[in-house]
Design brief:
Elements lengths: L2 E2 L2 E2 L16 E8 L2 E7 L6 E4 L2 E5 L6 E5 L6 E5 L4 E5 L25 E3 L1 E5 L13 E5 L22 H4 L21 E11 L3 E11 L8 E6 L2 E4 L18 E2 L6 E2 L3 E7 L2 E11 L7 E11 L7
Length: 309
């Protein structure tokens, strides 16, 4: 028996409208492609089925039905057959206003819940550097870079000059650190992802990151973390931004198509209660000769100190 928010799918509370020899049963109640999909039976032949107060379907002669409808904000909806109503808990559903990060571990195998710009795609261990957990991770790069590496974009979509500005809805005069222009120092190409969520209480956002590059020395391409109006560098040697802190991660040989990487590192960021936009990006600076990338995995928020979702 699958459960959600303490309610079992197929277990319900009958309310009002009197009794009936039929009992509504639910076979499937889940969110699919952004809409609620329900399938069930046990109702009278040709009964009118309602969902959240609106008529949505008519049962067949055997009392079975299926339909798609709106996803309830609470992920618990009211279904009726004209004689009784039940409360149905939706699977694969995130309540509006919840402090759950959507698809933070990328185990959907896609970018559901994230807005993106530039060269962004899901990768598995076949990339050479495996996820920090599970089977999937997200890769973003500043490719293509034809002057030196001859590496095309990985997703088929090129990185965007100043791309983090439109992604994070920032004005260049308000967030100049997203568009550093030190004698045309860049950024020449940027890719990134972002998500907005509501923290009901103060807590900690944790995530795993791995910076990869073909640029040796100090690694002047920048991997960044953005939280609301704050932009921080993940790789300490990136000279244009404040460093997020934590344990310094030197570049080591990479088993991927890139020459060097930091390997996965864990970051923890305090979050105040409220609605926040956060995300990650990769940018080329000073030159366009080398490609760099950022892997992100295991993004979680918890009010208890260690991420749980």
């Amino acid at each position: 028996m699958k459960t959600f928010l303490g309610l079992a799918v197929g277990v319900f509370l009958l309310m009002g409208f009197g009794s009936s020899t039929e009992a509504i049963t639910i076979d499937i109640a889940e969110v699919q492609n952004g809409v609620a999909f329900l399938r069930g039976g046990g109702v009278a032949a040709n009964a009118t089925i309602s969902w959240q107060g609106a008529n949505v379907a008519v049962a067949n002669t055997s009392g079975s039905f299926n339909f798609t409808g709106a996803v309830p904000d609470s992920c618990i909806g009211t279904l009726g057959d004209g004689k009784s109503t039940i409360q149905v808990a939706m699977l694969d559903c995130t309540p509006v206003g919840s402090d759950k990060i959507v698809n933070g571990k990328f185990e959907n195998g896609d970018l559901t819940g994230w807005e993106t710009i530039g060269d962004v795609l899901i990768q598995t261990a076949s990339f050479g550097a495996g996820p920090s957990q599970g089977s999937f991770q997200v890769l973003m790069t500043n490719a293509p870079d034809p002057l030196e590496d001859m590496i095309p974009s990985f997703s088929g979509t090129d990185a965007v000059r100043g791309g983090l500005i439109p992604l994070f809805d920032a004005a260049t005069n308000y967030w100049p650190i997203l568009f550093i222009d030190l004698a045309q120092a860049g950024p020449f190409a940027q890719s990134g992802i972002k998500q907005t969520f509501t923290a009901k209480k103060s807590g900690v956002l944790t995530f795993d990151w791995n910076f990869l590059t073909n640029e040796g020395g100090t690694g002047i391409d920048g991997a960044v973390f953005v939280l609301d109006d704050t932009v921080l560098s993940l790789n300490r040697d990136f000279q244009f931004l404040p460093w997020i802190g934590g344990e310094f991660a030197p570049l080591i040989s990479s088993p991927t198509v890139f020459n060097w990487e930091t390997g996965y590192q864990r970051a923890e960021v305090p979050i105040e209660a409220g609605t926040h936009t956060f995300g990650f990006g990769i940018a080329s600076h000073l030159d366009t000769r080398f490609v760099s990338a950022l892997l992100i995995d295991n993004v979680k928020f918890s009010t208890g100190g260690a991420g749980t979702n």
